[in-house]
Amino acid sequence: MPKYEEPESIGNEVAEASGEGPVHPRAEIVVVLAQQGIGRNEISRRTNIPAVSVSRIAEANGIYFDGSRIEPAMKALRTRIAELKEGQAGIALGLHEDIAVARMLLRTARTHRDYAFAAKSISDLTQSAQRMTPEVSDQEEMEEVKGSLAEFFDNMRAVRDGFEAQHGVPFESEEARRIIEQEESENEQP
Asked: What is the largest CA-CA distance in the chain?
């Protein structure tokens, strides 16, 4: 089977041996986007140039894609998603409060029109609340628990390190236990 050949226009996009820079406008776009810190796959998506060609064009111009920018971006993305879910949960909670008000209106309706209006409101609010209630997968719950445990562990380590720095004894020693017991008894006295 013959090897896949890229179209001539893409193959000629890389810099020439003279180092004059990109020789094709699409290659120049790749270089500009890469210099702005945009990742290879995103450049490929935006320009419709295969990712392999994007890498080749970038490398020919002295630009290399590394994964070191991905983790901070992913952390920021996870934080933003958590913030959005928190806001979404707040909206859902507000809708549940509105449902309670609509139920009261339904119970106190004096005309068929008021009754129908309250019933329709309850239906619409219930559907909206269901859509707005964020779904949490088991994986998300596990990640949240892992994050909480890691934060707790870091806090415990900071307490231990602070104790050891203040008293000059290992936290696990008998002397540390005596110091802690003494501090506790002093705090209990009025």
From this structure: 89
23/12 Cα distance (integer angstroms): 7
Per domain, the residue ranges of the chain are 10-65, 69-132, 140-188
5: which 2 tokens?
């050949």
pLDDT tens over the chain, length 190 residues: 444 444 444 444 454 444 555 567 888 888 888 888 788 888 888 888 888 888 888 888 888 776 655 666 677 777 888 888 889 989 999 999 999 999 999 999 999 999 999 999 999 999 999 988 887 677 777 877 887 888 888 888 888 888 888 889 898 889 988 988 888 888 777 6
pTM: 0.39
